[in-house]
Design brief:
The protein is α+β, with helices and mostly antiparallel strands and 833 residues long. Helices cover 24% and strands 31% of the residues. It comes from Culex pipiens.
Length: 833
């Protein structure tokens, strides 16, 4: 029996309620609740205030399992802090009667006769001024005089005043108070202007007290530095299996024009090659992943982790449940990208045809998952049938769908890369191999006869692995050809794409590159399949150095195949006898020590270094091995260097302080042999206080050149997907509403990048409609310095300049309100914080 509550509640007493699970409908409903008001607690005419902090969107998920279950179960839980109505539903599973559901969900009302609410933006930038609205609701029998206190005891922000902004002076205040008259069964709004001075989450704590009642709320506001964050991760495989001591050095390289005080430096240590991956299964990369191929990032790494942890006897029930949950979700979602003919494509039925590449990827991955979750074999078989129908007479597999990943689906390898990739999907579905043996033989012959003289390193790497799996007579020759094209440096080894002469000074080529990781991973798999584990170790060391701080890589394919390669070798070298001491030295004489042993192999140990740290020395002693990483981030608020896209965001003339129309024109910058991009992704950020106009998104999705539109970060960023971009300019228009009052906004970012080649990127910033302190201040806060013209531009108010919110039969009647007050009232009706 499962009982679940969802809604959007008050730090009150514990409430116990019994439900009769024998009945078709859950009986009983908790009565309207009010906080007990004990007059004996009055101090100086005011009631002690309980500050509400917990505001979950869903609350109770209770699994009732008892051998002696009699049909009733009493559940005692503390009600969360949100003022709301919780919806109670339940279902049961019985081996005889099957699934049982409550026929009518029940409601649990949680209420206070006097409470406060506030509504915060998703985030603001440091140095901006934000007006925080506070609504005081009074459902008592008489009007109340409320003293509203805005707390700043941690000095995380400054209170902003018009006069101080004009004369550029400020003073530290631990709190600010306002008094407001709140009639019975009404609401009143006051606002406070603050300028955050601390980065990260700051505490917004507001209390309201009267002689008879009191309430408070505490919420977190995210404060970010200006510009766009840039992430760098440097990692090393510290191998003490054949040396008593290992020394490593990392350098923190932050550009001089980085945003001041935006640098964060962190060191992490773990005793398992896949340890950081296990810790971050739900966030392996920082790119969005909203198409059919990218969705597999929710799927394949979990297979790799489960296989690896089982093989090394490290699997716990908690990790297994988490991984299977992600796999089942990814599996069901991937089926939405399936066509009726059994093929798959990046955007499902919005694509005219299925994709050879993605269908092979799915067939291969579904087979790997079948040992962990329930996968319908008919779906795999249908996908392989569709692939068989696409095979050309010469044995190759051409791409019949959209080309999203040119190195895989096209490139200079005469289709060898895609044919080898598709061949791998057939070879790994061994139970179905007899049915498709003729298809496999033709594909193997095609790959083998085109190897000699192949200069495309990417195609050669995939072909080498396919021929190893097929146990073809040319497998050793192919591996030798591939090995001859490797690059070595010290104890590391890797493969990379040739850098075009026109891009020889492109700084992005010096950073981890998705295609280089992908081809090096296939090379490593080939060496491992050939039994050359020692030769694979230098490749593993290089791959570890290319990972991000989450345990993934840059995009989907490199993360998937990279983790498969790492897991295969890690399973062979995994040890339960690790005993490593890591000494981290920085800033001349400062040190930290971390120990790694069999008890904490899978625990990611990390600590933050001062942002001034430049050189970090690592000294490792003991036995076994560990992974040491130095991760740091900083923000840039200038145009990106060496752009491979034209990017021109322009605010349209019909924009104003309350509504933003933004046209973003973009095109690909062609170079020798590169006339178009792979799948491109554009991320459009809005100025603080603005959120996307969701009503305009369908028109964007209906454009031929836009494949998908997503929102993220509280609807403050719009993500657009393009099949590819060429020299022809495209200019989508994005719209946003002002939902929160923010003045002195910093420029907003727009970035576009090639999903499968992160050396192709462009970054720009734009200024939205300007707002001053006079545009967001309220009443007495505006002072005499705000011009008469600015006052006239404000929305009309009632005589007191406050919101009049009256509850009538569950609805809200709004009196004379400013635009901001209307928004707050509507949000409160919906969310009741």
């Amino acid at each position: 029996m499962f009982l679940c509550l969802s809604g959007a509640v008050y730090d009150g007493p514990y409430y116990s309620h019994s439900f009769d699970f024998d009945s078709d409908v859950v009986d009983g409903i908790a009565p309207m609740m009010a906080m007990p008001m004990a007059e004996s607690n009055f101090v100086a005419g005011k009631l002690p205030v309980t500050v509400r902090k917990s505001f979950p969107e869903t609350w109770l998920w209770e699994h009732v399992v008892e051998e002696s279950f009699s049909g009733q179960k009493t559940i005692t839980k503390k009600v969360p802090d949100t003022i709301t109505s919780w919806i109670i539903t339940g279902f049961s599973v019985n081996p005889v009667y099957g699934l049982g559901l409550t026929q009518q969900p029940r409601k649990l009302n949680v209420f206070l006769p006097f409470f406060v609410s506030t509504n915060l933006p998703y985030s603001v930038k440091r140095g901006e001024i934000v007006s925080i609205p506070v609504v005081i609701f009074n459902y008592m029998e008489s009007g109340q005089t409320a003293e509203v206190t805005f707390d700043n005891s941690e000095y995380e922000f400054e209170f902003a005043d018009v006069e101080n902004e004009i004369h550029e002076n400020s003073k530290a205040e631990t709190s600010r108070k306002k008094t407001v008259e709140v009639p019975s069964n009404s609401g009143r709004t006051v606002s406070f202007m603050i300028r955050p001075t601390k980065l990260g989450h700051i505490t917004i704590k507001v209390t309201a007290t009267t002689a008879l009642a009191g309430d408070g709320v505490e919420r977190q506001l995210l404060v970010e530095p200006e510009g766009l964050p840039q992430f760098v991760n440097k990692a090393a495989f510290v191998d003490l299996r054949s040396a008593p001591e290992v020394m490593k050095n990392f350098t923190v390289e932050v550009p001089k024009n980085a945003v001041p005080d935006s640098t964060r430096v962190e060191v992490s240590v773990i005793g398992d090659v896949l340890g950081s991956t296990v810790q971050n299964l739900d966030s392996l990369i920082r790119m969005p992943y909203g198409c059919g191929e990218q969705n597999m990032l929710n799927f394949v790494p979990n297979i790799v982790v489960l296989d690896y942890l089982k093989g090394t006897d490290q699997l716990t029930s908690k990790i297994e449940q988490k991984a299977k949950k992600f796999m089942e979700s990814g599996y069901q979602r991937e089926l939405t990208y399936r066509h009726d003919d059994g093929s798959f494509s990046a955007f499902g039925n919005s694509d005219p045809k299925g994709s050879t590449w993605l269908t092979a990827f799915v067939a291969r991955s579904f087979k790997q998952a079948a040992s962990h979750i329930s996968v319908e074999e008919a779906i795999i078989d249908k996908a392989l049938e569709w692939l068989s129908d696409q095979q050309a007479s010469n044995g190759s597999f051409p791409e019949v769908g959209k080309v999203s990943h040119k190195d895989m689906q096209g490139g200079s390898g005469e289709g060898i890369a895609l044919t080898a990739y598709t061949l791998i999907a057939f070879l790994e579905n061994r139970n179905l191999l007899p049915k498709y043996q003729n298809i496999v033989n033709k594909a193997v012959d095609y790959v083998a006869r085109n190897i000699d003289g192949l200069n495309d390193v990417y195609a050669l790497a995939i072909a080498a692995y396919a021929l190893q799996l097929a146990d073809h007579s040319s497998k050793d020759f192919t591996l030798s050809q591939l090995d001859g094209k490797a690059t070595t440096d010290g104890d590391t080894k890797w493969w990379h794409k040739p850098i075009p002469e026109s891009d020889s000074k492109n700084p992005w080529y010096g950073k981890p590159n998705s295609v280089n990781v992908e081809m090096s991973s296939y090379a490593m798999l080939s060496f491992l399949e050939a039994g050359l584990d020692t030769d694979a170790l230098p490749i593993m060391k290089w791959l570890i150095s290319q990972r991000n701080d989450k345990g993934g890589f840059q995009s989907t394919q490199d993360t998937v195949v990279g983790l498969q390669a790492l897991a295969k070798l890690a399973a062979k070298i995994s040890s339960k006898n690790n005993d490593v001491t890591i000494v981290v030295s920085y800033n001349e004489n400062q040190q930290r020590e971390i120990k790694v042993n069999s008890e904490n192999n899978l625990i990611l140990q990390k600590f933050e270094l001062p942002s001034t740290a430049k050189n970090v020395d690592i000294k490792a002693t003991g036995r076994g091995f560990a992974i040491v990483s130095l991760g740091y981030k900083y923000n840039m608020n200038v145009t990106g260097e060496w752009p491979r896209f034209v990017l021109d965001p322009q605010v349209n003339k019909n924009s104003n302080q309350d509504y933003l129309h933004l046209s973003v024109c973009t095109s690909f910058v062609p170079t020798t042999g590169q006339n178009s991009s792979n799948m491109a992704v554009m991320e459009v950020g809005f100025p603080s206080g603005f959120t996307a106009d969701s009503d305009t998104l369908p028109s964007l999705e209906n454009m031929d050149y836009i494949k998908k539109v997503e929102l993220k970060d509280g609807d403050t960023i719009v993500v657009l997907y393009f099949d590819s971009l060429d020299r022809n300019e495209l200019c989508p228009t994005i719209s946003a509403f002002r939902t929160h009052k923010v003045a002195k906004q910093k420029p907003a970012p727009v970035v576009i990048y090639d999903y499968y080649d992160n050396s192709r990127i462009a970054r720009q910033f734009y200024d939205g409609p300007k707002s001053t302190v006079c545009d967001i201040c309220e009443n007495e806060d505006c002072g005499e310095s705000c011009s008469i013209r600015s006052q006239k531009q404000r929305s009309p108010k009632d005589d007191n300049g406050t919101a009049d919110v009256k509850a009538v039969s569950g609805a809200v009647t709004v009196g004379a309100l400013s635009t901001m007050h209307v928004l707050v009232a509507v949000l409160l009706l919906k969310m009741f914080y």
